[in-house]
Structure formats: structure tokens, C-alpha cells
Known about the structure:
Number of domains of chain B: 1
Radius of gyration of chain A: 18 Å
CATH architecture of the largest domain in chain A: 3-Layer(aba) Sandwich
CATH class of the largest domain in chain A: Alpha Beta
Largest interface: A-B, 27 and 17 residues
Helix content of chain B: over 70%
Distance between the termini of chain B: 48 Å
Low-confidence stretches of chain B: none
Number of helices of chain B: 8
CATH class of chain B: Mainly Alpha
Radius of gyration of chain B: 22 Å
CATH topology of the largest domain in chain A: Rossmann fold
Order of helices and strands of chain B: HHHHHHHH
Distance between the termini of chain A: 39 Å
Oligomer: heterodimer
Mean pLDDT of chain B: 88
CATH topology of chain B: MetI-like fold
Shape of chain A: globular
Strand order of the largest sheet of chain A: 6-7-8-3-9-10
Largest sheet of chain B: none
Number of domains of chain A: 2
Strand content of chain B: under 5%
Amino acid sequence: MAETYLEIRNLYKTFSAKNGSVEALKGVSLSIGKGEIFGVIGLSGAGKSTLVRCMNLLERPDSGDVLLNGESLLALNKEQLRLRRQKIGMIFQHFNLLEQQTVLENVCFPLEIRGIPKKERREKALALLEKVGLAEKAKAYPSQLSGGQKQRVAIARVLANEPDILLCDEATSALDPETTQTILRLLKTIRDSLGITIVVITHEMRVIQQVATRVAVLDGGSVQEEGSVVEIFDHPKSRAAKRLLLIADEEEESYAG
Amino acid sequence: MPSLGIEVLFKGTNFLRLLGGLWVAVRISLISVAISIVLGIAVGMLMTAKRKLLKAVFRIYLEIVRIMPQMVLLFVVYFGTTRVFGWNLNAETAAILVFSFWGTTEMGDLVRGALQSIPAIQHESAQALGMNPLQVYVSVILPQTVRRIIPLSINLITRMVKTTSLVVMIGIVEVLKVAQQIIEANRRVAPNAAFGVFAVVFLLYFLICWPISRLAGYLEKRWS
């Protein structure tokens, strides 16, 4: 592993609900290397969404620390955190584009927020759309695009801020297997060309297998197993990993059948 | 076919008087609607606040306005408060007060509903792009809210325009009252005028409310 870029130290997070409290994270620690594509896999309720939200402090952990490039996010004040977040890209399952704005305007949006002049942001946005292969859709509205295309726009938008890390929260879960592959390939290309660190949160083994080099298996709010993807696929040790592989096999069969 | 009595409207300045009355009704509605929209947005935003006391106060306010017939509210304000507090309130001001009081809370509830219907993930993804709370509100949440409330608030506006006909009861001479005066004055020469003149009043209300409700339909279709 290259030098550590994102370090998660002993995170705890409990949510209080009407009928008791839910411990979403119970002492999660991870080290993610610079330029690495790191996978976090778990079934729903495993705590992966909470974990990824802690990585840019959309969710504040009860205890523990999140270090980016050696710098603690929890030590930042509101304004510093806001600026730091511009360099922590995040994409979502349902894309969250601005529906009433065109593709180009969506990509220009973060640049506008940063106060970049109109001409410059247009040029930059067009170049980004070129990069994700959607230049010809610049004037279209999100409602006219397929799911895969929408995610490409979301990726272009997030790249506009020139992030040094990209968090993908179930980013391919709303897409069909083929589209998923193209999006994952795009993520790899982005990592290779820009050298940014990518964290992929998913419940699908296929996604991990295709894109990640290392993976952490999350279950019940803690890391059950962590290692290279090859290792965990070939010799799963934890029950959670075995179960996830079983589910993946069943899916494989149902596709084949 | 019996005479409908519409001809009385063409006597003298009768039709102009009727239009004058219509303007009074429209003026009261327009002013009330404008006040309701501005205050309603503020109230709606406050209603989504996390403070329990604030929420309870607005909840009670909303319930009172919903339960109380607008006419009773008009009477309380115009006949009641003027006595008790000894202030001098003209009828039109009283009407605007009552309609704004009503419109503000209804509008507030629409704004609250629309704001709460915006999924939390919209806030989150905006924050993840590094926006400050004001930018999130202005650039992401409000545009989506506006699209949701415009069709609903137009419905409220037409209801307010219609309900202004109640102000007759506190002595405002608006379109309905003028119509009544015209009918009364011509009772002998045109006994059927009640039908014709009120039908014209109906038509005038229709001409005002119909384009507004068409606009709602159009916007709903365009934005869906």
C-alpha cells in the first residue's frame, strides 16, 4: 500500500430512535492509501452509509477521528470544513442532480458556488463532460438522460471541484449490470488519470471485484475482515464475507439461468 | 323566453359600477394574497424549525384559522375588536387583515409541506459539494420548493378571491353589493334582474379565477 491518505480511527456512532438506540458504528478503523480504490462492502444496516458520511462529516461520529492527509477533519471549524469538503467529492445512488437545470449548468454549479467567472466555468465544465463522454448532452436536462448518463453528469460535477478523494455511496446500485460496468470503468480511468483516492461503498461483490484493490467487510457496525480483494474472494475468513460471496454466487447463477 | 333582466346593466353607468365593485373585491384579494405569500414563506420556514414551542404556536394558529369560518373571523375583527380596543378600523382594512391572517397560515403550511418533502439527501449532496447553509437554501432547496408550492398556492389564491364576496357582510360595497343595489333599484322595471345580474357576477368571478387556475394546471404540467 502507498502512503496512507484517509485514516479512520476507532469511529463510534449511535443513533437514538423512538424505540431504543442503534449503534451504527462500533469502533471502525481503516487506512486507505493514496490513489487507491478501496471498497467497503456490507449488507443493508451494516453501517456503511454512516461510515461514508463520517468520511466527510455529513455525519459527526460520537468518538474517533477522521484524518485526511494527516489532518483531522474533526478539528476544523465550520468554514474550514466547508472548504475542505470541496476537495472531498461524493456521488450518490440517486445522483441528486438539479432537475431544473441542464447538464452543463449542473456541472457549472459547484464552480459558480466557488465564484469562478462564467466563461471559465463553461470551458471547464465542457472539458469535464468530454472526459465522462457526455459532451453532446450538455444542453439536455437530467430527465432526458438514462441512469448511467446521470451518474456521469454527477461525476463530472464532482470533478469540477478537483477533489483529491472521491466517495461513492452505492453509486451503481440504481443501475443495471452493464451500466454499472461502464461507470466502474470510468472511475478507474479517473483514478489513473488524476491519481485521486476512491472509496466505493456497496452491497454488491461484483462491484468490489471489478474496481477495488482492497476491501473491508462491514457487518453490525464493525469491520469483520479487511484485505486485498483477491485474498477475500479466495479465502474469506469471516462469516459476513462468506455470506456476501454466497449471495453473489446466487445472483450469478440466476443471471446464467 | 322570459327576460333575464341583463338589460339593466346597460342602463346608465350600471355596468361600470359593477366593474368598480369587482375592482374592490380584486384589490382586497390582491393585497391579501401578496401579504400572505411573503409572510407565509417566512412562517413556513419557521414551521420547519426544530423548536418545539414555535411549532406548537404555529400549529394552534393553523388550527384556529382552519376551524373558524372566515365570516366569523371578519365579524370578530370588524365588529368585535373595534369595540373592545376602541380602534378605528375601516372595513377594507379589516377584510385585508382577516384574509392575510388566513392566507398566511395556509401558505405557511404549504411552504412547510414543500420544504419537508425535499429529501434530506438534497441537503447532504449540496453540503458535500462544499456549500454553506445559505447557498444550500437559496440554490438547492428553495428552487425545488417553489416549484412544488406554486400550483398549490394558486389554488389558495383562487379560494381567497372567491371568499372576498363575504366582505359584503361588513358593509363593503364590492361587486356583489353593487349587483344587489342595481337589482333593487330596478325591481319594478326588471323583476328578473336578480338572475341576469348575478349570472354576470358569476361570470366576472369566473373570468378572474379561471385564468389563474389554468396557470396552475399549465405550471403543473410543465414542471412534472
